[in-house]
Amino acid sequence: MMKKIVFLGCGSMGEAILGGMLAAGVSPTSVTVTVRRPERANELVERHGVTALASNEESGANAEAVQGASVVILGVKPVGIIDLCREISTALDPSAVVISVAAAVSLEQLEGALRPGQPVVRSMPNTPLKVGRGVVALSGGSSVEEHHLADAHAIFDGSGVVLDVPEEQQNAVSAISGSGPAYAFYLAEAMAAAGEALGLAPEIAQVLARETVAGAGMMLAEPGANATELRRAVTSPKGTTEQAIATFDRQGLPAIVKAGAESAAARAAEITAELSGE
Questions:
Q1: pTM value?
Q2: pLDDT of residue 171
Q3: Domains recognised in the chain with CATH numbers
Q4: Which of 23, 38, 175, 271 has the fewest other C-beta atoms within 10 Å?
């Protein structure tokens, strides 16, 4: 029997997950999506062939959608997750696995807003899921069994690499992979600015930086690739790259990246506390 999969909220990240899942072979007839606006619902129907409900038109759309579902993906912003869990709690099948993609919302908070024993998985996807190169970290709750995790893996497998981590590592995951794409974009910005400072035309500097970062990322994505080995292969003794890397080290770039990641992880913990009213 085909499993019913429901997306509650489907913004850009949710649609990236949905697209990867459908590309991996899941039938659109098994998928129901709820969004606020009817225009967005119609867009998703036309683009993906799924069933879509608009909560602005149907006040009970979320509870209606989850009835009989095997997998429910919570795709709303962190501030709205707990209220959404309470809204659908009694409509969920007790065996349905609920997957949250909201950053900083803990399993304890999710489980506390659902019926006791409801299987819950916390996930941390990142934006490269939109191009099939994402990475997703999953943490299972107290009632999650192996088959629930398998269902969660199946949702994300079509969009990137899926890893299982203890929940206490989720803030670190968020700091590295969740926020990480912004670090790469920031590096590309800095490289383009440096190129301009060296006399390149802005449009030339931007293309050089963009394509270099994108190309390096593709090399890193090759099976067995290692960042340290790739860097060393480009760094000839006494050459220009070696000089640049030595300057980065003297200026403390590794320590700066570490401090930034620590700040991101600390902010995630603060958000969790804020959502708990602490």
A1: 0.93
A2: 96
A3: 5-165 (3.40.50.720), 180-264 (1.10.3730.10)
A4: 23
